[in-house]
Amino acid sequence: MMVGSRTHTLLFPLLLLASLMVVSEGTWDLKYRHVYIKNGLDNHTILRFRCKSADDDLGTQNLKYDEEFKFQFRPSIFTNTVFHCSFTWDGKYRTFPIYDFKRDENSCHDCYWSIKQNFPCRFDNKTQGYDFCAFDYGFN
């Protein structure tokens, strides 16, 4: 009877170690993500925003034209990390998921966003421009 208990005691740490190796080797890439938010509105418009996830609230931020705000985080092991932001300028109010693990997992470890009048656009390393515009993701 003692031998069976001992086998289970040794088996659990080995299974845990194996699962951690799978996670660290790329099944889930849980390395830090960096998100940059840039005011791309115009020279005289202040962009005010607040971003939150289920675990973190980054507080209210104000950016002058062409200024940038950066934050970093490590995605949840459950792969459900989403940072929602609310943006205000010139009496307009818009919301947008600035980071969504399901959308950004494979395309965005360093996510550079420029907030424009009609929608946010993410920097594309291939084209070297803010070409991935989020009109499909609802800039409400």
From TrEMBL:
Residues 1-26 form the signal peptide. It holds the Pfam family Self-incomp_S1. Keywords: Secreted, Self-incompatibility, Signal. It is found in: Secreted. GO terms for biological process: rejection of self pollen. GO terms for cellular component: extracellular region. This is S-protein homolog.
